[in-house]
Amino acid sequence: MIALVSKAIKEQKVISFMYEGTRRIVEPFTLGTLQSSNNLSLSAWKVGGYSQSRSSSDWRLYTFSKMSQIKVESDALIESRAGYRADDSRMSYIWSTR
């Protein structure tokens, strides 16, 4: 699954996945190890799907171990997003970034 998400980041493709029981649709930007918890995490722009916390599109951080049924959405391309940083300071190690 790490390779699939990394490839989607490099190819600038939208992905969908199940997260805590609900479908999420995101533009993945950075996959890395989070400094605060040492968890593999995905920094992404939410474009669709359900969220208990907020319904609007914006930056989210997803714990990779909670993600399942990851699918690359074939013809969906990532847009440029304000606030993107390739050197995300929340990450102690970056596996993949745009």
From TrEMBL:
Give UniProt keywords alphabetically: DNA-binding
Keyword DNA-binding listed:
yes
Identify a single GO molecular function assigned to this protein. Answer: DNA binding
Highest taxon, organism lineage:
Bacteria
Which protein are we looking at?
Answer: DNA-binding transcriptional regulator YafY
